[in-house]
Write a structure and sequence with these properties.
Elements lengths: L17 E4 L3 H5 L11 E12 L2 E8 L4 E8 L2 E15 L3 H8 L9 E4 L2 E5 L11 E8 L4 E14 L6 E10 L5 E11 L4 E3 L1
Antiparallel strand pairs: 1-2, 1-12, 2-3, 2-8, 3-4, 4-5, 5-11, 6-7, 7-9, 8-9, 9-10, 10-11
């Protein structure tokens, strides 16, 4: 069932709802994750990626444009939850710039990626060298409109030292419906349902 007509979104997340991290989360992550947590934020847009076989990624973009929450869905059941914060967003100037960012000479897609002194392991692809980035399409809806975004992405992760919590590094070359390209880097951390409240 599509995100846009779901009667019961996971955890009550929808356009206009407020996402609030638990007070205990920031001190818990301190020293283990580089992600800086937001305060209470309103969901201003919702995205859906259909991965097939009833598996979907639901993305909830917060009013603070630096943050978004991702929920992996298996049918109607929520699975992994990750809070992401944008680390950077670079407008792609031309094809040469695109190749520099995600082409064969880029470090994106290699088995190990170093980011600000931390080592992250590639999560997608089996190649010993550079793996191909994964392509998928996202449908986004907000109170004013809906639109599509084409992604070319690679995901990395590292253990934080906290039980069942990993830190993620997501690279994505995003193309909007007008053909404009943006290369984004997002840092994320595993959340559990007890780590946040939705009102």
């Amino acid at each position: 069932m599509s995100l846009f007509n779901r009667a019961s979104p996971p955890f009550g997340l929808r356009n206009g709802s407020t996402f609030t991290p638990a007070r205990t989360l920031e001190p818990l992550l301190d020293g283990y994750s580089e992600l800086q947590l937001p305060g209470p934020e309103i969901v201003c847009a919702c995205g859906e990626v259909d991965l097939g076989e009833s598996v979907r990624l639901l993305r909830y973009y917060l009013d603070n444009d630096d943050y978004w929450l991702q929920v992996l869905m298996h049918g109607s059941q929520p699975g992994d939850i990750v809070l992401f914060g944008y680390h950077s967003a670079i407008a792609v100037r031309d094809e040469a710039h695109r190749q520099y960012l995600v082409g064969c000479l880029s470090k994106v897609g290699l088995p190990i990626y170093t980011h600000e002194g931390c080592l992250y392991s590639r999560q997608w692809g089996q190649a010993q060298g550079q793996a191909e980035l994964i392509q998928f399409h996202e449908q986004v809806v907000n109170p004013q409109t809906r639109y599509g975004v084409q992604h070319l992405s690679m995901l990395y992760a590292r253990d934080t030292g906290l039980l069942h919590r990993r830190e993620f590094l997501l690279f994505s070359l995003e193309e909007d419906e007008h053909g404009a390209l943006t290369f984004t880097t997002s840092l994320g951390v595993t959340l559990f349902p007890t780590d946040f409240n939705v009102t």
